[in-house]
Prior knowledge:
11 strands; six-stranded mixed sheet; alpha/beta; binds fe (ii) ion; Purple Acid Phosphatase, chain A, domain 2
Amino acid sequence: MGDLHLSFSTPEKSQERFGKIWKDHEWKAKKNIEKLVRPDDTLVLTGDHSWGNNLVQCQRDLEFIEALPGRKILLRGNHDHFWKANQTEKLNEMFKGKLLFLQNNFYTYRDYALVGSKGFCFEGPFFIDTRTDLITGYDKAAYEQSVKLVDREMKRLMTGIDAAKAAGYTKYIIFLHYPPTSVIQTDSEFTRLAEEIGAEQVIYSHSHGKERFHDSIQGRYHGVKYSLVSGDYLNFKPIRVLK
Ligand SMILES: [Fe+2]
């Protein structure tokens, strides 16, 4: 599951303003996770953990996550400002035995390599025909910038995949925070990579609200299973990735 968007130390940023699905959502998530996740299970949280801007503001949110059952693996979301891109190793040292941070590395589950990165997809600005609601164009400069961000995240993802490969792993589950494709794509660098390495699944989140839930791929596409796991999409009940 992804997008807990916790705000224990930043109540002014509470998600409740986004609708009733977010009312007491953290306690709904905790209850569901405690019911479904055993201590020896692995719980991957796909980013946007906390609204805090730094580790001090995130402390209570991260403690809330630490107290959840299972081995917790965290992915970096676009709102996770406490997680500086070059400090993943430092976070892994600081939270040793409590939380695992997935970026430029990999973790394992049985004979699977769990790899991941924040990912990225182009979110506009789009030009929309108000009569038909169809996208007629987009901001070219923003698009150019998005190509760079995709490239950077692909490199981070590849670092983990290469390390897993070198360690002898051949089965992969890919975790992304952003959806693998934007609303104007049917394929992307991420989907092509998933196909190329024979990843069994791609799990992503970030999309909130029913208008956004179907912006990217869900279900089986070119042999890979895609799942959206945003907290509000799942009504804060985590999905089981492997039987
Ligand atoms: Fe996000």
